[in-house]
Write a structure and sequence with these properties.
single chain; 213 residues; mainly alpha; elongated
Amino acid sequence: MKSRRLDYSESTRAALVDSAVELFTSRGYAGTSLDEIAKRARVTKGALYHHFSGKQALFEAAFDAVETLVIERLQQIMQGPEPPWERAISGLRAFIRNCLDPSYQRIVIHEAPVVMGWERWREAEDHFSFGIILASLEDLIQAGELDEMPVEITARLLFGALSSAATTIASSPDPKKVGAQVESVIVHLLGGIRRTPGDKPGQQGPARLQPWN
């Protein structure tokens, strides 16, 4: 069993991260002080520095917490009982819903590239998101929904498209409307490379695209 000291340490860290997520979401990185984070978490400044070296380290922990929650939701969908194609579309829709979340918008999309630096942010995004996209494509190919293709390259292109879509949604004055448009476009494009029963390898493609509703 864990000691009381370890339990207290873990709960203190969790309280600080929760406080950081809340304040970074509402006030942004520049508008939030460590004093405010510690006060909201009901811990001392010394306790904060016991767990985190400074404000950026705490921001990165908040970033990890928000991203982890999103990935856990997506993994539940991708490991669900639906057929691979339905799982992929459900995962896409869940990702777009996450792009409407204020914490995801503020911390992951707007603040992280500036606070963490572009390269570290991209590495972190790659760590959290790329594997799910890659696994989903592999599942679709194995299920015969897609032809054999360079999976790594395809996943990178789709990853880039979804990252751009997230920024577009978060930067829009009407995120819900843009999110719906993004979903429509990406589902339509994916449908263009989906094989249908009776297709021969290489036969799928834009010629089978249907008009949008």
